[in-house]
Design brief:
Layout lengths: L10 H4 L9 H21 L28 H26 L6 H15 L5 H8 L3 H18 L13
Helix pairs in contact: 2-3, 3-6, 4-6
Organism: Candidatus Enterococcus moelleringii
Protein name: ArpU family transcriptional regulator
Length: 166
Amino acid sequence: MGRVNLLKFNIAKYQKPDPDEIDWEVTRKNFSVFVNAYQISRERVGQTRMPRVTQSFSLIPPSTINQGCGQSEVLLIQHEDALEEFNELHNLFVQGYSAISHVKPDKSERRRKIFFLRYFNNLTLKEISERIFFGRDVIIKESKEAMLQFCTELELVVYKSEIRKG
């Protein structure tokens, strides 16, 4: 008699995708589209393009309350639409950012720091290396892993098998 394995925890849902199966070009493009839309939405509600973080790269919640007061009704309606879009994109950003982790907490912080410096501050590998005192190879590995975790959480990853060759 065969044993039926009924897991209550869906392991497949939480496993890291195989990097060799990912179409990195399309995935990076999806990531860039998301980041650009998020940064634009931040500006539309009076925020800076980059989310604010603490020294340990934890997110600081944005404050968009009472912004745009005293504007005409049309501007308030536009602001409300922008605020709705911002809230949606910010919640997605928080979801993706919080998925960036490592088994060791200090390495989770390092990975988030590298992610933020590379993809939001647009620093070069050399500039990041000089700032955090890690080698180029570590920065490349950690930034790729962080992007993968972020994109996986937001379902931005595209697999080579999904792309039609034509």
